[in-house]
Structures are given as structure tokens and as C-alpha cells.
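G., before I forget:
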Amino acid sequence: MHAMRNALKKLLLIVIIGSSVLVAPVCTWCDDGAPAAHRQFAFAAALFEEGDYFRAISEFKRLIFYYPDHEELSEEAAYMICRSYKEARRWQDCINACSHFETLYPGSNRRDHVRLIKAHAEHQLKEYGDALSSYGDILKEGIDSSESVHKALYGSALTMVDMRRWDEARRTFDRIPPGSDLHRSAVIFAEGLKNIHNLPRKSPRMAGVFAALLPGAGHLYTERPRDALVAFLLNGAFIWATMELIEDENYVAGGLVGFFELGWYTGNIYSAVSSAQKYNWKTEHDFIQGLKEKSGAWFYMDPEAKCPCFMYAMRF
Amino acid sequence: MLAVFFNTAVVAEPQEWPPWNYEEDSAPPSISDKRLDGLLPPAQAVKWALEAFAATVSRVDGDRCAMMPSCSAYAIQAVEKHGLTVGLIMTFDRLMRCGGDEYRYAPLITARDGYSRIYDPLSHNDFWWYKTSDNLDK
């Protein structure tokens, strides 16, 4: 009886050990890692789709680190890192990631797209020369009929618009062929840019001269009536005070008040000139923004911005 | 001197796109100590006087400036960035414009106290003659 019980215990132990060995999951690091790498990529891609860009970047980097031999997925992960930084608006990191991608995968078929992302990031950082250079690389090596070349032309033209090189921008828009999706937008923009030289402008020199002759006149010229009134009254009061003090032979006080009047007077001239420059800037800015709306470049209100603002994005 | 300054600067056209870039992080960058050490004694004295005003009179008077940065802060930045003469000229310019017609050209932002103010940093007023890669606005 005792022996039978022992035998039964041993048999039960063998059955338990045997079944656990049979049903245990296959060791994931015992195979070539392919299913795990794909799962890792899918997880990172899901984070990207949710908008959790920084975590997505970490997970893509994890994939590259753990599965460096899985070239196809590593390349795709490196490309997604570039996109994630772009979506997260981390422009310098985006540029670095794109440069890294180009170094690691010079023959990749994603190369043009990565260059477009890099150029967009450089544009956002106002590194216009670098942006034009990146677009230029695509134009040099791409086929004229390819969509990447059309996008590079469009991006170059928008960069030139921001650099205030209107005629060059117009000529670049004209190079986009009729077969491209961007052609209609480019035509509208190019037609609009023909009128940029006809916008109403204020002469900073005239504003300065008016302000020098009569404080406040420069501000009236630049359509700032309240500022004009303040400038006129301030300067008038201080000039009158200075003259009264000097007439009363109170030279020290007169000099002091006169010193302040000199400040108001020069400040009034500077203010008038600056107002004319700001007027001209605003006129151009509003015109270009209107062109972008009309031509179909994207605008959207950033709900998380600390002030109401508009941004534009190119369709990729 | 004034004639030379305005003749050279007045016809200057901004070569780059506007200084306004609302996409940028609004966290204020710090001004390097190296540049502060470069101020001449008169400019340093004026800067101290402005800081003393901000630390004493402004604390009693309260946050009444309609613009951001406030006029005293703007004056300090102007003197630090452009020196005594141009800094004072820009200060007088700002004092004349404060709360005036600038709202038609500048955006409104909400300050930490919850009130809206006209956003008028230094770069909005010297972009047409001063070129730099640094953003020194606070």
C-alpha cells in the first residue's frame, strides 16, 4: 500500500512535469526574433497613431537596438523616428534623425521622403538656406515627373516666399507641371505673387520726416491716431515746459526737462519709422496668409498654443 | 548722429520673414552673462535704476502695463541688447505706444495673472534694422 502510494506520487509528478514541458510557450529568443520584432514595431506604430510620439520614438529605438539584424524593420523604424519627431515638432531632433537615416540607409526608397521631412524641419527653424539645399538634393537626383520632385519644388517656393524672394518663388511655382496634384495650388500662388509689388505701403523715410517736423505727424501717416495724439501732447508739453524754464532763467531744470524732451522727440521719430515698417510687414503678411488659404496650403488652429496662431503644413 | 542713424536704418527692409513665430516655445531664454558684462558703466547704471524701479515702485503700483513684457522689463532688455542710447530711444518709443494703437498689429496673449495683454517684445520693434540669430526676448 505504501509502495503503491509512492508509485502514484511519482507518476503524478512525471505527468505534471511532462505536461508543463509540452504546453510551455516556445522560447521567444530561441527563434530568429521575427515575430517579436514585428510585434514591437506594431506596438510602436500604435503609439504613433495615438499621438504619443515620444514613447513611439523610444519603442522604435528599442526595436533597432534589440533587432539590428532585421534590416527592413530597422529601416522602417528609423523612418518612423523621423516622422515622430516631425509630428512632435522637435525640429532639431528631426533634422538629426533624418541625417542619421540618410547616413545609415543611403540607398533607401524612403530617402526622398526623409529629405522632405528634413527640409520642412529646417524651414520651421528658419534655416532657409539649409531647407533650400535639402530640397535641392531631391531636385538634383529625382525624376522630373515624380511626386517627390513636385513636393520639393512646392516646398522650395514656400521657403522663398518666407525669404521674401517673390520673383524666384513665382518662377519655382511655375515649374510644377500640370499633371501634379500641387499644380492648381501652385498656379494660384504664382498668380497672387504677381501682385505683391502693388500692395499699399508706407514709406519709413516719410514717416520719419513727418515725425521730425511735427511730433505725431509720422504716426498719423502710418494710421495710428492714438499714438499720434500721445506723441503730440507729450512733446508739446515738454517743449513748452523747457521754454518756460529757460525764460525764467532756471537753466538746470530747463536742461533736465530738455533732456527728457530730447528722449521723447527721438523716440517719436523712431516710433514713426518703426510703425511704417510694421505696417508694411503686416500688409505683406496678411497678403501671403490670404494666398496660402486661397491656394489650399493647410491652416489649423493649434488648440494647445498659448496664443491664437495659425500654422501651415504641406501635404506629404 | 541721429540723421546718420535714421538715414541708414530708415530705408532698411527686413530681409527675413517676420520675427513673430508663435510656433516657438514661449519659455524665455536667458541672456548670457558675457553680454551683461559687456555693458558700459552708464548703461549698467541705467539698468540698475530700472531694476530698482521694477523692484520698488512696480511692486506697489501693481501689474498695470497693458503690454507684455512690461515697459520697465522692455527698457531693461533694450538697454542690455542695444546699449544706452538706442535702448533709451526704444524705451521712449515704447512709453508713447503703451496701450495705444499697437493692439491692431500685435497679438493678445494671456499673462500668468489671467489678464490679456498686447504681446510686444523687443524683436517686434528692431527686426527692421537688427539682425541676430539669438532670440533674446523674455
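Strands of chain B lie at 67-68, 108-110, 116-119. Chain B is about 45% helix and 5% strand.

More on Monday.
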